[in-house]
Amino acid sequence: MAGGAAAAALLLTAAWLGGPAFWLAWVAGVMVLAATLWLAGGEWRRRLREAERSRDEVATQLDRRISELFSLQELGYILSGSLELERIVEQVVGFAARFLDSEGAAVILSPDGGRTLRVAAATGTLEPLAGRELPDDDEGEETAIRSAIDDGRIRSNPAGSPGVRLTSELTAASAAIAPLVSHGDRLGAIAVTGRAGTAFTTEDLWLLSTVATNASVVLANGRLFQMVQRSTEEWETAFNALTEGIAVVGPSGTVLRANSSLAQMAGVSEDDVVGRDFAAALFGPDAGIAGILQAARSGGRPAPLVARSGLSQRVFRLTAAPLGDLAGRGSIVALVEDVTEQRALEAQLIHSDKMATIGHLVSGVAHELNNPLTSIAGLTELLLERGPLPDFPREHLRVIQDQAERAGRIVQNLLTFVRKGTPDKANVDLNDVIARTSLLIAYEMKLRAIELRSELATEPLTVVGDRYELQQVLLNLVTNAVQAVASLAPSRSRVITIATLRDGDHAILRVDDSGNGVPSEHVPYLFTPFFTTKEPGQGTGLGLSLSYGIVESHGGRLSYEPAPGGGARFVLALPCVAPGDTAEMPATQARRILVVDDDLAVHRVVSALFAADGHAVDTARSGDAAMGLAVERTYDLVLVDTRIVTAEGRGFTEALLAARPGWAGRLVTASGNGRGEARAPRHLRKPFNLRELKALADELFSSPPRSPATMG
């Protein structure tokens, strides 16, 4: 502009001067003006080139930013498509390496939020670190990765710096580390390495920070998803590990969700039980549990209900309650417990408690009855052995003796059900067991107008077992048969048949009845505890199951089959033993016997029995009197009632053996409850048979005589 002004001044001067001077001035002005215009055009061209270069740089930056935005958008799409941490970290390292054109990239995570660091994924030059745990920083030796995580700031090295110490074992010539932080939680870091001598720019660090921010959110969500998934798996495992059945029942009564235990109770798979009616699947039709389910749907918490399943014949305890937020919509949660074995144990405990109470009563009554029965039976037997009596028919004596023995057997049968202790197995004749049981139930059979038939084998059927347990089994079978025929119409025949026979090496006992038999669908459950077809209060369902266990403990088997003429037949098979030979008892010599009993009738019977053979019999009614005799004299046989005690309350047997320790082998105890004493190996049950007492005495007397010095 200054050159243009000078040219204008020259032209004006030339016009003023005129003549040749005018032309010279004019030419000079034109030249100055041309030079000025040329210089102005060069400046304009320079500025134009600079503007074009700036425009190209802006366009390049814009293209880069657009590319970065699209890449970040792509990364967002990919990361949002998965919540699996493994896939997320693989995508992050791949994009970080591509965005920043780096030689290597890695994602380092802190699994527990503490000092432990693990390289979750890596690529390029950092790939050897993948899966490794990074050691903690040594004291005074800080690493870039831990520093970035600790202070939450990006770490990088400027150009020309010696390098970046990433870990205690790895140093990179150029690197940048961005922390991964979400809602204040430090999740880890992203590390990228560049080429030697090339530092990361501010834009690079901004891009790395943006990638880290997006990755932090997705990683936090992925970690939360893993926690939820792990919690769900733990809950599912615990849900299915419960032995109790659990079901979510919808408003219509169908199963919406169930665990494996409930499916097992229903006898189907977990998938099959869902969608089925809860009551029908577990308890069968008309189960009677609608009330408790309806009460729970109404928002209440009804008391647990115990019911038997008509499908599995198991006993279940059902608890129902509203299901949280779904309670108002009629959904409930049901808890089902199998209490079959628990109920069986409870019934056994109740039965044992009742038997213990009855036992105390029966034991006392048995003792009081057995003493007079012993005298009646014993004296009658002595009278029968002495020959005919004038003006007194022997038939009357036999009737007295038979009825006394019958009364004694009835007392012993009562003791069968209150007897304590472990089973006492010995040789038992099944025919004798049947005879004793028949006496026990004969009166009830007569009242119910039921005919009892016996078809017993002519030969003894001897088995090894506990007489009382076998009698309990037979009584259970006969009782079931009585209940089966008692409900028949008056026009129907009411007959129960007990038969025995030998089948090879087994003794067979059959109990048949003329009832309606057992329906085929009930046969598989006959010996299951608590299974019963009787009305409530009419039976516990334990009789056959207990009988089955007793028979099995004796090495036998108990089974059911339809009776040939209709009705039911139960068959008991036990191993049979061959009868042993009975040896002849040797003759005896005169012995001295001590009878210790508080009943004078027993004294008279025993004295009459042994006096006929020339034996000397001393008697005592108290423990102290008997001790005085035992100290003064020596006896070959001491017959003691187990209830006799000394003045100090000490059992007489214990006191006697303390004073005479060598007399254990000559002691014979007697009691009305059938229980002997451990120190006395020989025992008689009152009312004892005189022949048994005499045989036992002969056995003792047959042992070699001992000198007084060795007799205690």
List keywords for this structure.
Beta-Lactamase; 712 residues; 5 domains; disordered C terminus; alpha+beta; single chain; 19% strand
Give a verbal description of the structure.
The protein is of the alpha+beta class and 712 residues long. The protein has five domains: 2-60; 82-232, GAF domain (Beta-Lactamase); 242-338, PAS domain (Beta-Lactamase), CATH 3.30.450; 424-578, Histidine kinase-like ATPase, C-terminal domain (Heat Shock Protein 90); 592-710, Response regulator (Rossmann fold), CATH 3.40.50.2300. It contains 18 helices and 25 strands. The longest helix has 62 residues, at 19-80. The radius of gyration is 54 Å and the shape is elongated.
Q: What oligomeric state best describes the polypeptide chains here?
A: single chain
Question: What is the count of β-strands?
Answer: 25
Instruction: Please name the CATH topology of the largest domain.
Output: Heat Shock Protein 90
Rg calculated over all Cα atoms? 54 Å
Main beta sheet, described?
6 strands, antiparallel
Number of domains: 5
How far apart lie the N and C ends? 159 Å
List low-confidence stretches.
581-588, 705-712
Structural class based on helices, strands and sheet pairing: alpha+beta
Output the strand order for the largest sheet: 3-2-1-8-7-4
CATH class of the largest domain: Alpha Beta
Mean pLDDT: 76
Estimate the strand proportion: 15-25%
The CATH architecture of the largest domain would be 2-Layer Sandwich
Give the name of the CATH superfamily of the largest domain.
Histidine kinase-like ATPase, C-terminal domain
Helix fraction, binned, reads 40-55%
Choose one word for the global shape: elongated
**What is the count of helical runs?**
18
